[in-house]
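Async update (no meeting this week)

Hi team, since we skipped the sync, here's where things stand on the single-chain job. The sequence we agreed to prioritize is pasted below, unchanged from the tracker. I ran it this morning and attached the output directly underneath so nobody has to dig for it. Comments welcome in thread, and please keep replies under the output.
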Amino acid sequence: MAQPAWQDPVLLPLDTAPVPEYGSGSLADLLPTLVAGQGVRGFTAAIPELTPADRNCVFLIDGLGWEQITAHPDEAPFLHSLLPTSRGGTGRPITAGFPATTATSLASVGTGLPPGAHGLPGYTARNPETGELMNQLRWKPWTSPAVWQPYPTVFGLADEAGVATAQVSAPTFQHTPLTKIALSGGTFHGRLTGEDRMDLAADRLAAGDRSLVYTYYSEVDGKGHRFGVDSDAWRGQLMYVDGLAQRLAEQLPPRSALYITADHGMIDIPFDEQSRIDFDEDWELRAGVALLGGEGRARHVYAVPGAETDVLTVWREVLGEQFWVASRDEAIAAGWFGPQIDERVYGRIGDVVAAAHDDVVVTASVQEPHESAMVGMHGSMTPVEQLVPLLEVRS
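Output:
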């Protein structure tokens, strides 16, 4: 029998959201585990499955989640062959953290802290000091990096402890605020081509008896956003990066461990009204909202003062069957942003936080025309976005 049209929606229970494995198997736990194994004081091996190595290299492929590798054995034969090595030979992924987005994940990698501590809780978040939305990937409007994220990086602390530490990435990233607050410490080496990065990463790995090298490739994510993960352009990038990973693995110096991971996965969202709900065209969702932050699959909603309860009620009524919709305090209590929230971070989190469960996004066609036109999306806690590889090659 069909349900009456007036029946209340069946809301997704918040306790069904798959919270990231902070403290035992998330991106924030990777570098602390590696440097603890190198004898750097103040760190513990949070991911117990990993075995220490004198020389550690992390190759982060932007946008290449666990499910994308498992689904493409022909395009990524080398990476696919390494799936059984993931997470210390358990054949299991780790989790990105919430939201599963680049700025948040890179800050988690570099600081060894979950989002509630490092303070980059989304693609865009409100600055409580100014009331403006802060784009934490592009760092606009300008905000003092040291104030926004005051903790030292793991790279910096490892370098101070005598570990030969280096980052090998595109030259354009060398002086960005995100690099400064998340990925700085030791030496930065800018190289344009992926092949040059792999070769130099291997060289830097051999530069010390104890070494820590980070290298990065972005275009898998770029092609996924523009064309989708079901496109030939994306598959071409996957084939290319599979070759890069093998090139690096074949050059590892003795006593090395290479870890291949990602900052998030990605999902293609159809271009129809049911899959793309436009905030700028929906008067119900806009009512009482002062600022819309985050991104399509992980929204921070900042209410006009006094309207917080009403906004939460409406967002649950409109979206609660397709999104986990929580108040700020509910999201914090559920551990979405980690086990604790720094005081300076509390107001950056939305009064309402909405994380997609279904294949759906909340776009903003007027405020966010570029982001709203993307094919591939990410940000939420679903497996396709949240699970990332931790593939391992040792020499």
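Quick observations from my side:
The mean pLDDT is 97.
The radius of gyration is 21 Å.
Reply here if anything looks off.
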